[in-house]
Design a protein that fits this description.
Residues 24-48 have a biased composition (Polar residues). Residues 1-48, 387-407 are annotated as: Disordered. The protein has 407 residues and is of the alpha/beta class. 44% of the residues lie in helices and 7% in strands. It has 2 domains: 4-230, no CATH class; 342-405. The relative contact order is 0.10.
């Protein structure tokens, strides 16, 4: 029987060489409260349950914990609780078919990766870009000594996703560090002397980073990036929740696959059901019309938003390449549907959920019967009490455990 277990504090055994203490900033408010748009609308997604349950609680994450013996128990964790897990305990992370973390474990992992990337003892800011950060000792060391210390993840696709995610967060955090602390009305020397505290940055690294940011080439690149961001006029409304996690919640509740075209209005509507702006509403309406004339929803998506670029797929989420979700031409222009594959995967996920629910019910019934026999019948079962053998055929009664072993 699955046991609920709230982990609030344990002995701190985290002594890795990168960051031997939790980040100073343990404020989880941005991740703890995730906007859930009220999506009761529209012809784009009809006859489905959209107002689905996400997290069981906004105060903690409900995850599966595995000990050294392979025993799995349910735990309730906040970010700061992860850092003090015993060395025998790791968090099981659930992934979808595209190699993206999902469920509450995926949300907690994302929050944890942000804390790791934001401590620059783990990845120094003196390197100009993420690919230049040495694999050893930094990337592999952080993955082995920090991530795998607390989370049960493999060295294949899951490692690839996590390192890519760390790189993006590191880049964003490094940019924010400069914008928040560099004062343009002060000299270079004065800014270097004003070393930001609490981020794991040494004076030498801070000076190197400032010199990099003050180069004319770097400033030109920053201006170009800022200009490109201004062109992104349709923000999503999922908050800190990834589109992969939202899609998984919807598919689990409705027992069917949700396409990119269906996820577009879902991820661009406010709590009151209205679109985030007129442009988002117009795009959704155009997408609905195109679907009626195209052979697949992917074809309609590409026709409206343009060809996919190598390394990403719009409307699917971070860490997914076109080859993972669709068949495509060399230019990623002609896209064919992958609905059959997605539908099969959705059915598999639903069957897994039902199986876990059935196991929990069986475990509960077994515990209740054993308790009744031990406490109400003195540990003895009637001669004609039905039991079952390995082949499912009724057999003679079996002895029950002594009452002292019943939890």
């Amino acid at each position: 029987m699955t046991k609920r277990k709230t982990v609030s504090s344990r002995e701190n055994t985290s002594t890795h060489e990168f960051n031997d203490s939790p980040p100073v900033d343990q404020n989880e408010s941005s991740e703890s409260i995730e906007p859930e748009p009220t999506l009761s609308t529209g012809s784009e997604v009809s006859n489905v349950q959209l107002d689905v349950q996400g997290r069981k609680s906004n105060k903690y994450w409900t995850v599966d914990l595995e000990d050294a013996n392979g025993v799995i128990k349910e735990g309730h964790l906040r970010l700061k609780d992860v850092w003090v897990l015993s060395r025998e305990t790791r968090i099981i992370v659930h992934w979808n078919e595209h190699g993206q973390p999902i469920g509450e474990s995926g949300g907690l992992l994302g929050l944890f990766l942000g804390a790791v990337a934001g401590n620059f003892k783990n990845f120094p800011i003196s390197y100009e870009k993420w690919p230049l950060v040495p694999t050893e000792p930094y990337k592999n060391g952080a993955y082995r000594d920090i991530i795998q210390r607390f989370f049960k993840v493999d060295d294949g696709q899951q490692k690839k996703y996590i390192l890519q995610n760390l790189g993006r967060k590191w880049k964003d955090d490094r940019c924010k560090l400069f914008n928040d602390n560099y004062k343009w009305n002060l000299t270079r020397e004065q800014n270097i002397a004003a070393l930001p505290k609490g981020f794991g940055v040494s004076l030498e690294q801070w000076a190197t980073f400032i010199d990099y940011r003050l180069r004319s080439k770097t400033q030109d690149m920053c201006e170009k990036n800022a200009s490109n961001r201004e062109k992104q006029t349709i923000p999503h409304t999922l908050g800190s929740k990834t589109i992969a996690r939202k899609k998984h919640e919807l598919e689990t509740a409705n027992k069917r696959v949700f396409t990119r075209a269906e996820m577009y209005p879902i991820s661009h509507k406010k709590k009151d059901g209205s679109f985030v702006n007129d442009e988002a509403r117009e795009k959704s309406e155009q997408l609905t019309l195109l679907q009626a004339n195209e052979s697949s929803t992917d074809d309609a998506y590409v026709k409206l938003f343009g060809k996919e670029h190598p390394g990403r797929v719009r409307g699917v989420g971070f860490g997914v390449c076109p080859s993972q979700v669709m068949k495509s031409s060399n230019s990623f222009g002609g896209v064919s549907s992958s609905c059959n594959h997605d539908f099969d995967m959705a059915k598999v996920r639903c069957m897994e959920v039902e199986l876990q629910e059935n196991k929990a019910t069986i475990s509960l019934l077994q515990a209740q019967v054993t308790y009744f026999i031990n406490h109400c019948m003195g540990g003895k079962v009637p001669h004609d009490f039905p039991t079952a053998t390995n082949n499912g055929v009724a057999d003679s009664p079996i002895e029950t455990r002594p009452s002292s072993t019943i939890p």
